[in-house]
Recover the amino acids of this structure.
């Protein structure tokens, strides 16, 4: 059995109950709570994927195929797999060289799980492009907001250094400076 088999049953109520279990477990066993948090993250991801549009599921599949490391030896192969996945989605999974009788016989032997695994969700290239562009626009807006927040924080720290240096000596101020440094690093890596 896999989580994917029960994807339709994962809802907000299940996640809420699991979150309550995590909070109760934290008081008794932090290691078990960590495992439950990891499960919560997996279930939340599955729930989001089920709720996503076909275009966003395709984007998720393609990004998963490509991975994070573009310099890796297998990147060109992963890129070809991603292209094939997009082509399959854009054509509705129809291929000119498929023997439908052999496929039907194989599916009859393997059962319904194999049929679902072999089925491909059709995605309109236009819808895919529109949704990806909207997602990129939203990401750009978030990057702009992050840059503005970093700039405001830098100005505030400069002001405090000049006029109230004692305010920068607290643990809370040190934690905020650490978070600001992490935000700067994160922003620089995306720019």
């Amino acid at each position: 059995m896999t989580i994917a088999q029960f994807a339709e049953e994962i809802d907000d109520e299940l996640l809420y109950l699991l979150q309550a279990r995590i909070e109760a477990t934290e008081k008794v066993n932090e290691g078990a709570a960590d495992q439950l948090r990891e499960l919560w993250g997996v279930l939340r991801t599955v729930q989001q994927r089920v709720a996503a549009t076909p275009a966003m599921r395709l984007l998720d599949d393609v990004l998963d195929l490509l991975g994070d490391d573009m310099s890796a030896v297998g990147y060109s192969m992963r890129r070809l797999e991603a292209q094939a996945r997009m082509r399959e989605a854009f054509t509705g999974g129809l291929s000119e060289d498929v023997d439908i009788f052999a496929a039907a016989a194989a599916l009859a032997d393997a059962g319904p799980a194999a049929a679902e695994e072999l089925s491909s969700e059709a995605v309109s290239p236009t819808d895919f492009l529109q949704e990806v562009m909207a997602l990129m626009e939203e990401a750009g807006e978030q990057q702009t907001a992050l840059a503005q927040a970093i700039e405001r924080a830098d100005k505030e720290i400069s002001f405090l250094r000049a006029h109230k240096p004692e305010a920068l000596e607290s643990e809370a101020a040190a934690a905020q400076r650490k978070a600001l440094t992490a935000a700067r690093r994160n922003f620089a890596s995306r720019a």
Notes: The helical segments are 12-26, 30-51, 54-66, 75-90, 100-110, 112-118, 125-163, 171-190. The chain has a mean pLDDT of 86. Residues 125-163 form the longest helix (39 residues).
